[in-house]
Amino acid sequence: MINKIVQLFIGALEALTGFFGFITSDHAYIHQAKAFTAIIPAGSISAAYHICFKTPTVASGKYIHYRPLGITSSADYVDIKLYEGETYTGGDAITPINRNRVASATASTMQAFVKGATVTPAGVLLYNAGVGSTGGPQNKAGAGGGADEELVLKQNTIYCLTLTPAGATTVTASVFWYEEDEGTV
User: Fold this and answer.
1) What is the CA radius of gyration of the chain?
2) C-beta of residue 48 within 8 angstroms of C-beta of residue 121
């Protein structure tokens, strides 16, 4: 229903202005209730900190399209790495939030999502970036240009983000992804 309203609005806008109207794929996935965010609230870290998740099973028919981490650091540089195939224990569960609040009852098909896990390094490094520098708050938002760095993740696989600060800092992070059906990958 919402998609039809959006299409009608875009059509009317095109007719009125003569300009081609469009919405981004992220925006479309939000309207389809396929986009999710996991929020890692502000916390002080001074050593490697791990955020781990397990992608949906093959039987689910869903694929995770991961976007770069949105993160802020209050004082120091933070190295950000994404690994595939890690092993982890413990951690505090995070419930992903559906970005379409009208259809918020649609749950993510992720099997697990935790912060503060203990990780046994064994995986393949897929992504490496950094944010911040000593002397002031810095941030890197994954939304702008994130589509260019999107990764389609393997099903039924553990992935871990490792945040390693240069010194003590307070970090807030959000992970964004959308879930697409098999056959559209």
Assistant:
1) 18
2) no
In the numeric block, which tokens belong to residue 146? 């994130």
Task: Look up residue 115 and give its two tokens.
Answer: 């912060």
Write out the E strands in 46-86: 49-54, 62-66, 70-73, 78-84
Contacts of 145 (CB under 8 A, 6+ apart): none
What's the pLDDT at 133? 64
The set of residues, in sequence order, having a beta carbon less than 8 Å from that of 12 and lying 6+ positions away, is none
Both 109 and 170 in one domain: the answer is: yes
Condensed to tens digits (0 to 9), the pLDDT of residues 86-145 reads 999 999 999 999 999 997 888 999 999 999 999 987 789 998 888 876 544 444 444 344
Query: 88 vs 27, 92, 127, 171, CA distance in Å?
Result: 33, 12, 18, 21
Verify that 156 and 174 share a domain, yes or no: yes
pLDDT digits (tens, 9 = 90+) for 68-82: 888 888 888 899 999
Same domain, 60 and 97: yes
Query: 113 is in which domain, residue-wise?
Result: 36-181
**Quick one: 98 and 10 in the same domain?**
no
Strand 70-73 to 87-89 pairing:
unpaired
CATH, residue 51:
2.60.120
